[in-house]
Design brief:
single chain; mainly alpha; Rhomboid-like fold; two-stranded antiparallel ribbon
Length: about 300
């Protein structure tokens, strides 16, 4: 089994949590390779990443609306993706102890959208931010939504940390949010704002689930609709290819039968040929005709076959 086949097998057999991690890693690898190639050609890799980054300017965002989704699956810094994927793996597994994978996937997407919404709102409504141009990528808002949601649902869930021992999950969430709040003034202002947006979505999920409402149900229905659309398109393409193969098979079968009939007639006509006909060469031509059809014969062989039939 090749490396690609092994990766495909692991992805198909993995849980939804692991699939999200695989997608993030795959996008990271593609971006780094594309960035390296772009750097060799033009001396800059920024243009590649801008296709998946979420722009703060509303007009730029409307020209690249897909970045609302792509940004939450994209990383370019090694430590950034390492921290986010470890965070997603550890807290995602805890989340799945109490909720199903669809809820986790829906919350991941909703958390990313919530982070993007707060990010765009701040950069377009706050006067001193509106003049700034910022770009954002990373799964932090999505991951923080999962962290806050499970911390609100099971606040006293114990987490073992190096040097600190066992600590309640609620304190993990509180400390993380506090770091984001005091970090807004640093260079990663947009990132911290998005983190808080994801945290608000996680808070919304936790409060709603206690009241018996699942806020991820509608986003999962939307995702299901998109998936079914692609499945129907793939099924249609497969049926078209199958029909083409079947038509091609029938055509070749019909051609082969016609060639076989022509060969039988030619054999019957040449049995009474005069002794001047080269029987060995004639048999060779007839064998070729039977195997490959009349079109495969050379002009010389066609002429020889024609003359042999006339001498019958």
């Amino acid at each position: 089994m090749s490396i690609v086949d092994d990766i495909k097998s692991r992805y198909k057999g993995g849980s939804l949590l692991m699939r999200f991690i695989y997608i993030n890693i795959a996008v990271f690898v593609v971006l780094r390779l594309a960035g390296f190639i772009s750097f060799l050609i033009s001396g800059s890799s920024a243009t590649i990443v801008q296709w998946v980054e979420l722009p703060s300017n509303l007009h730029d965002f409307l020209r690249q609306p897909w970045t609302l989704i792509t940004y939450m699956f994209s990383h370019y810094d090694v430590m950034h993706i390492l921290f986010n994927m470890l965070w997603l793996y550890w807290l995602g597994r805890i989340f799945l102890e109490f909720f199903n994978p669809r809820q986790m996937g829906g919350l991941y997407v909703l958390g990313g959208i919530g982070g993007a919404a707060l990010y765009l709102a701040c950069y377009n409504l706050i006067p001193h931010l509106a003049s700034q141009h910022s770009l954002m990528l990373g799964a932090s808002a999505s991951v923080l939504a999962i962290v806050v949601a499970i911390a609100l649902y099971r606040p006293d869930y114990p987490i073992s940390l190096f040097f600190f021992g066992s600590i309640s999950l609620k304190w993990i969430a509180i400390i993380t949010i506090f770091i984001d709040i005091i970090g807004i003034e640093n260079n990663n202002m947009g990132g911290h704002i998005a983190h808080l947006g994801g945290a608000l979505v996680g808070l919304w999920f936790g409060l709603a689930i206690k009241q018996g409402h699942d806020i991820t149900s509608w986003i999962n229905r939307c995702i299901d609709s998109v998936v079914m659309l692609f499945k129907k398109r793939n099924a249609k393409d497969k049926r078209t290819r199958s029909h083409e193969r079947e038509s091609s098979y029938k055509y070749h079968k019909s051609t082969s039968s016609g060639s076989s009939s022509a060969t039988a007639k030619d054999k019957g006509n040449t049995k009474n040929a005069t002794t001047s006909v080269d029987e060995e060469k004639l048999d060779e031509i007839l064998g070729k005709l039977k195997q490959s059809g009349y079109a495969a014969l050379t002009d010389e062989e066609k002429e020889f076959l024609f003359n042999a039939s006339r001498k019958r």
